[in-house]
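User: Can you predict the 3D structure of Protein-L-isoaspartate O-methyltransferase? Sequence below.
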Amino acid sequence: MDTDTPSGTAENLRADMVARLRAHGAIRSDQVARAFAKVPRERFAPEETSLTSVYSVFDVVITKRGADGKATSSVSAPWLQAEMLEAARLRPGDRVLEIGSGGYNAALIAEIVGPEGHVVTMDIDPFVTERAGRFLAETGYPHVQVVLGDAEHIEHGPYDAVIVTVGAWDCPWAHLLAPGGRMVVPLRFCAITRSITFVRDGDRLVGLDPTVCGFVPMQGAGAHHEQVAALAGGAVTLTLDGGPPLDTAALDRALTGDPSELWTGIVARPGVPFDTLHLWLAVHDDAFGVIWPNPAHEGDLVKPVLRWFCPALVTQDSFAYLTYREANSSDIEFGVHGHGPDGAELAQRLAAHQRTWHHDWRDHPGPRFSLHPADAAVPTPAVGRVFRKRHTQLVLDWR
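Assistant: Sure. Here are the predicted C-alpha coordinates for Protein-L-isoaspartate O-methyltransferase:
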Protein backbone atom coordinates (compact mmCIF):
# COMPACT_ATOMS: atom_id res chain seq x y z
CA MET A 1 0.00 0.00 0.00
CA ASP A 2 1.20 3.53 -0.67
CA THR A 3 3.42 4.73 2.21
CA ASP A 4 3.64 8.33 0.95
CA THR A 5 -0.10 8.90 1.24
CA PRO A 6 -0.84 11.82 3.58
CA SER A 7 -2.32 10.94 6.93
CA GLY A 8 -6.09 10.67 6.78
CA THR A 9 -6.32 10.08 3.04
CA ALA A 10 -7.69 6.56 3.48
CA GLU A 11 -10.41 7.87 5.78
CA ASN A 12 -11.24 10.66 3.35
CA LEU A 13 -11.40 8.26 0.41
CA ARG A 14 -13.57 5.92 2.45
CA ALA A 15 -16.01 8.69 3.25
CA ASP A 16 -16.05 9.76 -0.38
CA MET A 17 -16.72 6.14 -1.44
CA VAL A 18 -19.73 5.98 0.88
CA ALA A 19 -21.08 9.25 -0.49
CA ARG A 20 -20.68 8.01 -4.05
CA LEU A 21 -22.35 4.69 -3.25
CA ARG A 22 -25.29 6.56 -1.75
CA ALA A 23 -25.54 8.83 -4.78
CA HIS A 24 -25.33 5.80 -7.10
CA GLY A 25 -28.15 4.12 -5.17
CA ALA A 26 -26.09 1.09 -4.18
CA ILE A 27 -26.23 2.05 -0.50
CA ARG A 28 -29.79 2.68 0.65
CA SER A 29 -29.69 2.01 4.39
CA ASP A 30 -27.83 3.57 7.30
CA GLN A 31 -26.53 0.24 8.59
CA VAL A 32 -24.81 -0.59 5.30
CA ALA A 33 -23.43 2.95 5.07
CA ARG A 34 -21.98 2.71 8.58
CA ALA A 35 -20.28 -0.60 7.75
CA PHE A 36 -18.64 0.79 4.60
CA ALA A 37 -17.59 3.91 6.50
CA LYS A 38 -15.87 1.90 9.24
CA VAL A 39 -14.15 -1.12 7.65
CA PRO A 40 -10.69 -0.27 6.23
CA ARG A 41 -10.92 -1.74 2.71
CA GLU A 42 -7.22 -1.05 2.07
CA ARG A 43 -6.21 -3.56 4.75
CA PHE A 44 -7.63 -6.41 2.64
CA ALA A 45 -5.94 -5.36 -0.62
CA PRO A 46 -2.43 -6.29 -1.83
CA GLU A 47 0.22 -3.88 -0.58
CA GLU A 48 1.03 -2.62 -4.07
CA THR A 49 -2.55 -1.48 -4.71
CA SER A 50 -3.02 2.28 -4.68
CA LEU A 51 -5.57 3.78 -2.32
CA THR A 52 -7.29 5.37 -5.28
CA SER A 53 -7.86 1.92 -6.82
CA VAL A 54 -8.89 0.42 -3.49
CA TYR A 55 -11.64 3.01 -3.00
CA SER A 56 -12.83 3.25 -6.59
CA VAL A 57 -16.56 2.57 -6.50
CA PHE A 58 -16.61 0.47 -9.67
CA ASP A 59 -13.22 -1.30 -9.56
CA VAL A 60 -12.37 -4.84 -8.46
CA VAL A 61 -9.12 -5.47 -6.56
CA ILE A 62 -7.47 -8.69 -7.71
CA THR A 63 -5.83 -10.61 -4.88
CA LYS A 64 -4.74 -13.79 -6.68
CA ARG A 65 -4.31 -15.01 -10.25
CA GLY A 66 -3.98 -18.52 -11.62
CA ALA A 67 -1.20 -19.85 -13.84
CA ASP A 68 -3.15 -18.63 -16.88
CA GLY A 69 -3.23 -15.07 -15.54
CA LYS A 70 -6.95 -15.11 -14.81
CA ALA A 71 -8.19 -13.87 -11.46
CA THR A 72 -9.06 -16.61 -8.95
CA SER A 73 -9.77 -14.35 -5.98
CA SER A 74 -10.62 -10.68 -5.59
CA VAL A 75 -12.20 -7.98 -3.47
CA SER A 76 -15.37 -7.18 -5.38
CA ALA A 77 -16.25 -3.68 -6.54
CA PRO A 78 -17.86 -1.63 -3.74
CA TRP A 79 -21.06 -0.92 -5.73
CA LEU A 80 -21.72 -4.65 -6.11
CA GLN A 81 -20.89 -5.50 -2.51
CA ALA A 82 -23.28 -2.78 -1.38
CA GLU A 83 -26.05 -3.99 -3.70
CA MET A 84 -25.72 -7.56 -2.43
CA LEU A 85 -25.63 -6.54 1.23
CA GLU A 86 -28.70 -4.38 0.77
CA ALA A 87 -30.44 -7.26 -1.00
CA ALA A 88 -29.66 -9.61 1.92
CA ARG A 89 -31.50 -7.28 4.35
CA LEU A 90 -29.23 -8.21 7.24
CA ARG A 91 -30.30 -7.45 10.81
CA PRO A 92 -28.46 -7.36 14.13
CA GLY A 93 -28.13 -10.86 15.51
CA ASP A 94 -28.36 -12.63 12.13
CA ARG A 95 -26.40 -15.77 11.34
CA VAL A 96 -24.75 -15.31 7.94
CA LEU A 97 -22.79 -17.63 5.67
CA GLU A 98 -20.52 -16.13 3.04
CA ILE A 99 -19.35 -18.50 0.28
CA GLY A 100 -16.19 -17.17 -1.32
CA SER A 101 -13.94 -15.37 1.11
CA GLY A 102 -11.43 -12.56 1.13
CA GLY A 103 -12.16 -10.95 4.47
CA TYR A 104 -13.42 -7.48 3.59
CA ASN A 105 -17.00 -8.45 2.79
CA ALA A 106 -17.14 -10.65 5.89
CA ALA A 107 -16.04 -7.65 7.96
CA LEU A 108 -18.84 -5.56 6.45
CA ILE A 109 -21.32 -8.30 7.32
CA ALA A 110 -19.96 -8.53 10.86
CA GLU A 111 -20.44 -4.79 11.32
CA ILE A 112 -24.07 -5.02 10.21
CA VAL A 113 -25.09 -8.07 12.28
CA GLY A 114 -23.19 -6.80 15.32
CA PRO A 115 -21.59 -8.71 18.21
CA GLU A 116 -24.73 -10.75 18.79
CA GLY A 117 -24.63 -12.06 15.20
CA HIS A 118 -22.51 -14.85 13.77
CA VAL A 119 -20.57 -14.75 10.49
CA VAL A 120 -18.99 -17.72 8.72
CA THR A 121 -16.87 -17.06 5.62
CA MET A 122 -15.78 -20.06 3.55
CA ASP A 123 -13.35 -20.61 0.69
CA ILE A 124 -11.75 -23.58 -1.03
CA ASP A 125 -8.32 -21.94 -1.39
CA PRO A 126 -6.02 -22.05 1.68
CA PHE A 127 -4.20 -18.95 0.41
CA VAL A 128 -7.49 -17.06 0.58
CA THR A 129 -8.63 -18.33 3.98
CA GLU A 130 -5.23 -17.77 5.62
CA ARG A 131 -5.16 -14.23 4.28
CA ALA A 132 -8.79 -13.55 5.24
CA GLY A 133 -8.33 -14.86 8.79
CA ARG A 134 -5.17 -12.83 9.31
CA PHE A 135 -6.63 -9.57 8.00
CA LEU A 136 -9.91 -10.02 9.88
CA ALA A 137 -8.01 -10.48 13.14
CA GLU A 138 -5.78 -7.47 12.43
CA THR A 139 -8.74 -5.19 11.72
CA GLY A 140 -10.80 -6.12 14.76
CA TYR A 141 -12.97 -9.01 13.52
CA PRO A 142 -11.36 -12.14 15.03
CA HIS A 143 -14.82 -13.46 15.88
CA VAL A 144 -15.63 -14.06 12.19
CA GLN A 145 -15.29 -17.80 11.59
CA VAL A 146 -13.08 -18.54 8.58
CA VAL A 147 -13.56 -22.03 7.12
CA LEU A 148 -11.43 -23.83 4.54
CA GLY A 149 -13.56 -26.19 2.47
CA ASP A 150 -15.62 -26.94 -0.63
CA ALA A 151 -18.95 -25.10 -0.51
CA GLU A 152 -20.63 -27.90 -2.44
CA HIS A 153 -20.71 -29.96 0.76
CA ILE A 154 -21.87 -27.55 3.47
CA GLU A 155 -24.20 -29.17 6.00
CA HIS A 156 -24.13 -26.81 9.00
CA GLY A 157 -26.75 -24.13 9.50
CA PRO A 158 -29.39 -22.77 9.47
CA TYR A 159 -28.54 -19.22 8.37
CA ASP A 160 -30.63 -16.10 8.13
CA ALA A 161 -28.69 -15.16 5.02
CA VAL A 162 -26.38 -16.90 2.56
CA ILE A 163 -24.29 -14.54 0.44
CA VAL A 164 -22.31 -16.09 -2.41
CA THR A 165 -19.39 -14.06 -3.75
CA VAL A 166 -18.17 -16.40 -6.49
CA GLY A 167 -19.81 -17.14 -9.82
CA ALA A 168 -22.02 -20.19 -9.19
CA TRP A 169 -23.50 -22.31 -11.97
CA ASP A 170 -25.74 -24.12 -9.50
CA CYS A 171 -27.25 -23.34 -6.11
CA PRO A 172 -27.26 -26.28 -3.65
CA TRP A 173 -27.67 -24.20 -0.48
CA ALA A 174 -31.43 -23.73 -0.11
CA HIS A 175 -31.57 -26.23 2.76
CA LEU A 176 -29.26 -23.96 4.79
CA LEU A 177 -31.78 -21.11 4.97
CA ALA A 178 -33.71 -20.46 8.16
CA PRO A 179 -37.42 -19.58 7.79
CA GLY A 180 -37.62 -16.15 6.20
CA GLY A 181 -33.98 -16.30 5.16
CA ARG A 182 -32.56 -14.76 2.00
CA MET A 183 -29.88 -16.08 -0.34
CA VAL A 184 -27.97 -13.77 -2.69
CA VAL A 185 -26.24 -15.66 -5.50
CA PRO A 186 -24.37 -14.58 -8.65
CA LEU A 187 -25.95 -17.33 -10.74
CA ARG A 188 -24.37 -18.33 -14.04
CA PHE A 189 -26.35 -19.62 -17.03
CA CYS A 190 -25.76 -19.40 -20.77
CA ALA A 191 -22.42 -17.63 -20.21
CA ILE A 192 -24.06 -14.70 -18.39
CA THR A 193 -24.33 -13.92 -14.67
CA ARG A 194 -27.06 -12.28 -12.63
CA SER A 195 -26.88 -11.67 -8.90
CA ILE A 196 -30.30 -12.86 -7.74
CA THR A 197 -31.88 -12.69 -4.30
CA PHE A 198 -33.78 -15.90 -3.55
CA VAL A 199 -36.54 -16.23 -0.93
CA ARG A 200 -38.50 -19.38 -0.15
CA ASP A 201 -42.02 -19.86 -1.49
CA GLY A 202 -43.21 -23.37 -0.66
CA ASP A 203 -40.91 -25.93 -2.27
CA ARG A 204 -39.30 -23.39 -4.58
CA LEU A 205 -37.22 -20.24 -4.29
CA VAL A 206 -38.43 -17.04 -5.92
CA GLY A 207 -35.74 -14.84 -7.44
CA LEU A 208 -35.79 -11.06 -6.95
CA ASP A 209 -33.86 -8.09 -8.34
CA PRO A 210 -31.53 -9.71 -10.92
CA THR A 211 -28.41 -7.56 -11.20
CA VAL A 212 -25.84 -7.71 -13.99
CA CYS A 213 -22.48 -8.65 -12.51
CA GLY A 214 -19.35 -10.72 -12.90
CA PHE A 215 -17.41 -12.88 -10.43
CA VAL A 216 -14.49 -15.27 -10.50
CA PRO A 217 -15.90 -18.76 -11.12
CA MET A 218 -16.46 -21.31 -8.41
CA GLN A 219 -13.85 -24.03 -7.96
CA GLY A 220 -14.14 -27.56 -6.63
CA ALA A 221 -17.10 -29.90 -7.00
CA GLY A 222 -19.38 -27.01 -7.97
CA ALA A 223 -17.20 -25.85 -10.86
CA HIS A 224 -18.75 -25.66 -14.31
CA HIS A 225 -16.69 -25.36 -17.46
CA GLU A 226 -18.07 -23.41 -20.40
CA GLN A 227 -16.65 -23.61 -23.89
CA VAL A 228 -14.16 -20.81 -24.53
CA ALA A 229 -12.57 -20.12 -27.91
CA ALA A 230 -9.69 -17.62 -27.89
CA LEU A 231 -9.30 -16.34 -31.46
CA ALA A 232 -6.50 -14.43 -33.17
CA GLY A 233 -4.03 -15.20 -30.43
CA GLY A 234 -6.41 -14.09 -27.69
CA ALA A 235 -7.54 -10.86 -29.38
CA VAL A 236 -11.17 -12.03 -29.43
CA THR A 237 -12.93 -14.47 -27.11
CA LEU A 238 -16.12 -16.44 -27.70
CA THR A 239 -17.91 -18.22 -24.85
CA LEU A 240 -20.71 -20.76 -25.16
CA ASP A 241 -22.37 -22.86 -22.46
CA GLY A 242 -23.01 -26.31 -23.93
CA GLY A 243 -23.52 -27.33 -27.53
CA PRO A 244 -21.17 -29.26 -29.83
CA PRO A 245 -17.42 -28.74 -29.29
CA LEU A 246 -16.20 -25.48 -30.80
CA ASP A 247 -13.67 -25.72 -33.64
CA THR A 248 -11.27 -22.93 -32.69
CA ALA A 249 -9.26 -23.22 -35.91
CA ALA A 250 -12.42 -22.90 -38.03
CA LEU A 251 -13.66 -19.97 -35.92
CA ASP A 252 -10.24 -18.33 -36.33
CA ARG A 253 -10.59 -18.58 -40.10
CA ALA A 254 -14.13 -17.25 -39.90
CA LEU A 255 -12.98 -14.23 -37.92
CA THR A 256 -10.51 -13.11 -40.58
CA GLY A 257 -12.96 -13.53 -43.46
CA ASP A 258 -15.31 -10.84 -44.73
CA PRO A 259 -18.37 -10.66 -42.47
CA SER A 260 -22.00 -10.75 -43.49
CA GLU A 261 -23.50 -7.45 -42.41
CA LEU A 262 -27.06 -6.35 -41.84
CA TRP A 263 -28.71 -3.47 -40.02
CA THR A 264 -31.78 -3.81 -37.86
CA GLY A 265 -33.23 -0.30 -37.98
CA ILE A 266 -33.24 -0.31 -34.16
CA VAL A 267 -31.88 3.00 -32.90
CA ALA A 268 -30.87 3.79 -29.34
CA ARG A 269 -28.96 6.35 -27.33
CA PRO A 270 -25.45 5.16 -26.33
CA GLY A 271 -25.38 4.01 -22.72
CA VAL A 272 -29.04 3.03 -22.58
CA PRO A 273 -29.07 -0.47 -21.00
CA PHE A 274 -30.46 -3.44 -22.87
CA ASP A 275 -29.44 -6.27 -20.54
CA THR A 276 -32.81 -8.05 -20.83
CA LEU A 277 -31.86 -8.82 -24.44
CA HIS A 278 -29.27 -11.26 -23.11
CA LEU A 279 -32.00 -13.02 -21.13
CA TRP A 280 -34.33 -13.08 -24.13
CA LEU A 281 -31.64 -14.68 -26.29
CA ALA A 282 -30.70 -17.18 -23.59
CA VAL A 283 -34.31 -18.34 -23.46
CA HIS A 284 -34.89 -18.50 -27.22
CA ASP A 285 -31.69 -19.72 -28.87
CA ASP A 286 -29.43 -22.61 -27.82
CA ALA A 287 -26.56 -21.01 -29.75
CA PHE A 288 -26.57 -17.93 -27.52
CA GLY A 289 -23.13 -17.00 -26.24
CA VAL A 290 -21.01 -13.91 -25.74
CA ILE A 291 -18.07 -12.26 -27.45
CA TRP A 292 -15.56 -9.65 -26.35
CA PRO A 293 -12.30 -8.19 -27.67
CA ASN A 294 -9.22 -8.23 -25.47
CA PRO A 295 -8.37 -4.58 -24.77
CA ALA A 296 -4.68 -5.51 -24.52
CA HIS A 297 -4.66 -6.44 -28.21
CA GLU A 298 -4.62 -3.78 -30.87
CA GLY A 299 -6.76 -3.97 -33.98
CA ASP A 300 -10.39 -3.90 -35.01
CA LEU A 301 -11.19 -7.51 -35.83
CA VAL A 302 -14.62 -7.05 -34.26
CA LYS A 303 -16.74 -4.05 -33.32
CA PRO A 304 -19.17 -5.27 -30.66
CA VAL A 305 -21.87 -2.98 -29.31
CA LEU A 306 -20.72 -3.87 -25.79
CA ARG A 307 -17.10 -3.97 -24.69
CA TRP A 308 -17.69 -7.00 -22.49
CA PHE A 309 -20.08 -9.93 -22.88
CA CYS A 310 -21.69 -8.74 -26.09
CA PRO A 311 -24.56 -10.99 -27.29
CA ALA A 312 -23.60 -13.50 -29.98
CA LEU A 313 -24.84 -16.70 -31.58
CA VAL A 314 -22.08 -19.30 -31.79
CA THR A 315 -21.82 -22.66 -33.55
CA GLN A 316 -18.89 -24.98 -34.16
CA ASP A 317 -17.41 -22.96 -37.02
CA SER A 318 -19.46 -19.74 -37.26
CA PHE A 319 -20.73 -16.86 -35.18
CA ALA A 320 -22.68 -13.62 -35.34
CA TYR A 321 -22.67 -10.73 -32.90
CA LEU A 322 -24.28 -7.35 -32.30
CA THR A 323 -22.45 -4.35 -33.72
CA TYR A 324 -23.37 -0.70 -34.25
CA ARG A 325 -22.93 2.41 -36.37
CA GLU A 326 -23.73 6.05 -35.81
CA ALA A 327 -27.32 6.85 -36.74
CA ASN A 328 -27.01 10.58 -36.11
CA SER A 329 -25.06 12.87 -33.85
CA SER A 330 -26.42 11.30 -30.67
CA ASP A 331 -27.81 7.82 -31.49
CA ILE A 332 -26.52 4.50 -32.75
CA GLU A 333 -28.15 1.84 -34.90
CA PHE A 334 -27.82 -1.81 -34.00
CA GLY A 335 -26.49 -4.17 -36.61
CA VAL A 336 -25.18 -7.73 -36.85
CA HIS A 337 -21.93 -9.11 -38.23
CA GLY A 338 -21.83 -12.79 -39.18
CA HIS A 339 -18.66 -14.80 -39.71
CA GLY A 340 -18.08 -18.27 -41.11
CA PRO A 341 -20.07 -20.59 -43.38
CA ASP A 342 -23.23 -20.15 -41.32
CA GLY A 343 -22.54 -16.51 -40.45
CA ALA A 344 -25.25 -15.04 -42.68
CA GLU A 345 -27.93 -17.37 -41.28
CA LEU A 346 -26.83 -16.69 -37.69
CA ALA A 347 -26.90 -12.96 -38.41
CA GLN A 348 -30.48 -13.21 -39.65
CA ARG A 349 -31.47 -15.19 -36.55
CA LEU A 350 -29.82 -12.76 -34.17
CA ALA A 351 -31.42 -9.78 -35.90
CA ALA A 352 -34.84 -11.44 -35.79
CA HIS A 353 -34.49 -12.15 -32.07
CA GLN A 354 -33.49 -8.57 -31.40
CA ARG A 355 -36.40 -7.16 -33.39
CA THR A 356 -38.88 -9.33 -31.49
CA TRP A 357 -37.37 -8.29 -28.16
CA HIS A 358 -37.31 -4.63 -29.19
CA HIS A 359 -40.88 -4.43 -30.47
CA ASP A 360 -42.63 -6.71 -27.98
CA TRP A 361 -40.51 -7.12 -24.84
CA ARG A 362 -38.04 -4.26 -24.45
CA ASP A 363 -40.34 -2.34 -22.12
CA HIS A 364 -41.12 -5.51 -20.17
CA PRO A 365 -39.42 -5.67 -16.74
CA GLY A 366 -37.79 -8.94 -17.75
CA PRO A 367 -38.41 -12.55 -16.83
CA ARG A 368 -39.35 -13.83 -13.42
CA PHE A 369 -36.78 -16.17 -11.88
CA SER A 370 -37.49 -19.20 -9.75
CA LEU A 371 -35.36 -22.08 -8.51
CA HIS A 372 -36.72 -25.60 -8.04
CA PRO A 373 -35.29 -28.92 -6.83
CA ALA A 374 -33.68 -31.00 -9.56
CA ASP A 375 -36.30 -33.77 -9.20
CA ALA A 376 -39.37 -31.47 -9.20
CA ALA A 377 -41.91 -31.61 -12.01
CA VAL A 378 -41.50 -28.14 -13.50
CA PRO A 379 -43.56 -27.17 -16.56
CA THR A 380 -41.88 -25.14 -19.28
CA PRO A 381 -43.31 -21.60 -19.32
CA ALA A 382 -45.29 -20.51 -22.38
CA VAL A 383 -42.64 -17.84 -22.94
CA GLY A 384 -39.53 -18.92 -21.12
CA ARG A 385 -37.19 -21.80 -20.43
CA VAL A 386 -36.12 -24.28 -17.78
CA PHE A 387 -32.36 -24.55 -17.23
CA ARG A 388 -31.64 -27.95 -15.69
CA LYS A 389 -28.62 -28.09 -13.42
CA ARG A 390 -27.15 -30.69 -11.07
CA HIS A 391 -29.05 -29.75 -7.92
CA THR A 392 -31.69 -27.37 -9.17
CA GLN A 393 -33.79 -26.16 -12.07
CA LEU A 394 -33.72 -22.46 -12.89
CA VAL A 395 -36.88 -21.16 -14.56
CA LEU A 396 -37.07 -17.92 -16.54
CA ASP A 397 -40.70 -16.96 -17.21
CA TRP A 398 -41.44 -13.91 -19.39
CA ARG A 399 -45.20 -13.87 -18.88
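Confidence is low (pLDDT under 50) at residues 2-7. The chain has two domains: 58-221, 227-361.
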